[in-house]
Specification:
The complex is a heterodimer of chains A (about 110) and B (about 110). With about 110 residues, chain A is an all-beta fold. In chain A, about 0% of the residues lie in helices and about 50% in strands. Chain A is globular, with a radius of gyration of 14 Å. In chain B, strands 2, 4, 5, 6, 9, 10 and 11 form a 7-stranded mixed beta sheet that branches. Classes of the chains: A mainly beta (about 110), B mainly beta (about 110).
């Protein structure tokens, strides 16, 4: 089946540090890939997406590139802020499927210290 | 604000009880998804409705059911509740069946005592 594996957390960083969260996927076909973010006490927010190979999604200083050859969609940010402290979920949707349901990774908790 | 609303925000109940969680999708969205977020299972897809019809089922227990009404709001019914049903339940919506992007509500936190 389709699945997403993302790096185990928690990750603790200092402000202005570089953040990378690894995500790899297994899918029969060509999924759309997403990063969702969950701030403390809140719901899931779409952070960025990419729908085909070599696409780069970006938002709020975060970037991720859809790499078909390595089946990866790693999330990066060059300089994190305390406000980036959250849980980050990598997810996929199989285009052309019956349901377009999201399959999520386990989530990575990121804490940024001032 | 995603435009998806869920009520109630918190729900505390006892084992064996039944509860109903409500979701209103974004204006114009026809597709509604329900997900469960628990510590041991992570985020799991439960069920999808599209324009009033059940479209797909995931890891949904037989004690759980859902429906989507003509005004497109959806309800998730959980019965014979067990301690393990304690979780955050999210609703998400998208405009059409073939839309890959879903917008999530704030969730309902269910605590079963």
């Amino acid at each position: 089946g389709n699945s997403v594996t993302q790096m185990e957390g928690p990750v603790t960083l200092s402000e202005e540090a570089f953040l990378t969260i690894n995500c790899t996927y297994t899918a029969t076909g060509y999924p759309s890939l997403f990063w969702y973010v969950q701030y403390p006490g809140e719901g899931l927010q779409l952070l960025l997406k990419a729908t085909k190979a070599d696409d780069k999604g970006s938002n709020k200083g975060f970037e991720a590139t859809y790499r078909k050859e390595t089946t990866s969609f790693h999330l990066e940010k060059g300089s994190v802020q305390v406000s980036d402290s959250a849980v980050y979920f990598c997810a996929l949707v199989m285009k052309g499927s019956n349901d377009y349901k999201l399959s999520f990774g386990a989530g990575t908790t990121v804490t940024v210290r001032a | 604000d995603s435009g998806v609303t869920q009520t109630p925000k918190h729900l505390i109940t006892a084992t064996g009880q039944r509860v109903t969680l409500r979701c209103s999708p974004r204006s114009g969205d026809l597709s509604v998804y329900w997900y469960q977020q628990s510590l041991d299972q992570g985020l799991q897809f439960l069920i999808q409705y599209y324009n009033g019809e059940e479209r797909a089922k995931g890891n949904i227990l037989e004690r759980f059911s859902a429906q989507q009404f003509p005004d497109l709001h959806s309800e998730l019914n959980l019965s014979s509740l067990e301690l393990g049903d304690s979780a955050l339940y999210f609703c998400a919506s998208s405009p059409r069946l073939s839309t890959d992007t879903q917008y999530f509500g704030p969730g309902t936190r269910l605590t079963v005592l």
